[in-house]
Amino acid sequence: MTTRIPTTADMIGLAEAIVTEGFDAHRIAIAELVTTARQRGVRPVLIDVVADEASPTVARLRALGRVITALSAAPVERLEPTRALVGAAA
Questions:
Q1: In the chain, beta strands by DSSP E
Q2: pLDDT at 89
Q3: Is 16 helix (H, G, I), strand (E, B) or coil?
Q4: Is 79 helix (H, G, I), strand (E, B) or coil?
Q5: C-alpha span between 57 and 35 (Å, rounded)
Q6: Residues 6+ apart with CB under 8 A from 53
Q7: Above 50 in pLDDT, residue 13?
Q8: Is residue 79 over pLDDT 80?
Q9: Which member of 52, 54, 70, 81 has the greatest number of CB atoms within 10 A?
Q10: Per 3-state DSSP, what percentage of the chain is helix, strand, and coil (rounded to 5)?
């Protein structure tokens, strides 16, 4: 089973929400993003930091930015519409 890549706008919205509300408020959306990133071959060390609740927030935010950049750089034909990540956590 392949998870769809969320739009860049969705991922940026998630990142902004995390900055405002914290990682804990968006656990489901983060788990979905982590799954997608693993399936798409994003560097495992970045994914591990994003997923690690014990990592410092600043490290998780930096890694999240790199994961979003990697997913956003995927070829256009691989991108498919998906529901907004921020709404997934609600």
A1: none
A2: 47
A3: helix
A4: strand
A5: 20
A6: 23
A7: yes
A8: no
A9: 70
A10: 70, 0, 30
Pair of tokens at residue 2: 């392949």
Instruction: State the sign of the Cα–Cα–Cα–Cα dihedral 70, 35, 22, 85.
Output: positive
The pair of three-digit structure tokens given for residue 63, joined into one six-digit string: 């890694």
What is residue 78's predicted lDDT score, i.e. its pLDDT?
47
Alpha-carbon distances of 6 from 26, 44, 80, rounded to whole Å: 15, 19, 7
Write the CA distances from 89 to 9, 19, 42, 45, 54, integer angstroms.
16, 14, 22, 24, 20
Report the percentage of the chain scoring pLDDT > 70. 77
- Contact predicate 89/27, CB 8 Å: yes
Residue 14 is inside which H or E element, if any? Answer: helix 8-21
Distance of alpha carbon 70 from alpha carbon 76, whole angstroms: 13
Mean pLDDT of 14-32: 96
Given pLDDT bands bounded at 50, 70 and 90, which one contains residue 6?
Answer: confident
Query: Which pLDDT value is given to residue 69?
Result: 95
82, 5 Cβ separation under 8 angstroms: yes
